């Protein structure tokens, strides 16, 4: 619970988690469905995240909860749910509709016991994620047989809002710019280290590296150039 100054009064804000997650990395396998996922979370729909590890399961659940900010997610969420949790029987029964909760699981057993849930997100290994997934179709729940099923969103849900392709493009562009900034910062740090520690690198190589860094900076937006376009060490 934190307090934010708004005018002359203090407004209390409930944070879903103090653990900051990389939303783009978490949603990478299902990026083209991010608008629909936002809608499902906003409506408090029952969601299952199936991931290969507890860390990826937890990060994805926390990313879903955080994606509706500044609105507060008011339903329950379990970043890492196991067969030993007290609600196991309640959540796996087929005699009643699943509750409004977001579950994160890793046990392959859940691919069968939670198959009746209306919305299932299958996340692959984030460490091995390469280019943006090109599979844009929503998958049918009956195709989810095991935890080894392909990454994607398994649901019969029909979104109320039309997908805004422009928003998707803007998000991709912003992420590319962030990656470029991160690359420049790392290169500048390596360059400074090489010169500071007098590493055995030829002067011509260092000069070319400076030129490449400047070239990358010049293609970025002006606001980012102002941050990065600092004089490099001679």
Shape: elongated
Percent in helix: 25-40%
Oligomeric grouping of the chains: single chain
Uncertain spans, ≥5 residues at pLDDT below 50? 129-133
CATH topology title of the largest domain: Rossmann fold
CATH class of the largest domain: Alpha Beta
Measured on Cα atoms, how large is the radius of gyration?
A: 22 Å
Structural class: alpha/beta
Strand content: 5-15%
Q: Based on the structure given, which CATH architecture of the largest domain is correct? A: 3-Layer(aba) Sandwich
Which series of helices and strands comes N to C?
EEHHEHEHEHEEHHH
Count of structural domains: 2
Q: Please give the alpha-carbon distance between the first and last residues.
A: 48 Å
Spatial order of strands in the largest sheet: 4-5-3-6-7
Q: How many strands? A: 7
Structural features, described:
Mean pLDDT is 78; it is low at 129-133. Helix content is 39%, strand content 13%. It has eight helices and seven strands. The protein is an alpha/beta fold and 234 residues long. Helix 6 runs antiparallel to helix 7 (203-218). The chain folds into two domains: 18-155, Rossmann fold, CATH 3.40.50; 165-228.
């Amino acid at each position: 619970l934190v307090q934010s100054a708004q005018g002359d009064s203090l407004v209390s804000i409930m944070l879903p988690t103090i653990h900051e997650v990389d939303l783009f990395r978490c949603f990478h396998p299902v990026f083209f469905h991010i608008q629909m996922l936002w809608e499902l979370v906003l409506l408090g729909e029952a969601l299952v995240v199936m991931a290969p590890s507890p860390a990826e399961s937890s990060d994805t659940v926390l990313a879903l909860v955080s994606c509706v900010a500044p609105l507060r997610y008011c339903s329950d969420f379990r970043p890492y749910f196991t067969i030993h949790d007290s609600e196991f029987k309640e959540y796996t029964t087929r005699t009643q509709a699943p509750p409004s909760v977001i579950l994160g699981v890793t046990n392959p057993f859940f691919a069968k016991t939670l198959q009746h849930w209306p919305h299932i997100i299958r996340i692959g290994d984030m460490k091995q994620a390469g280019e943006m997934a090109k599979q844009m179709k929503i998958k049918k729940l009956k195709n989810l047989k095991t935890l080894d099923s392909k990454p994607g969103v398994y649901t019969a849900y029909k979104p109320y809002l039309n997908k805004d392709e422009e928003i998707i493009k803007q998000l991709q562009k912003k992420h590319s710019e962030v990656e470029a900034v991160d690359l420049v910062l790392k290169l500048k740090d390596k360059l400074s280290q090489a010169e500071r520690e007098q590493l055995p690198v030829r002067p011509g190589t260092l000069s070319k590296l400076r030129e490449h860094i400047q070239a990358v900076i010049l293609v970025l937006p002006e606001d980012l150039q102002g941050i990065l376009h600092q004089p490099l060490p001679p």
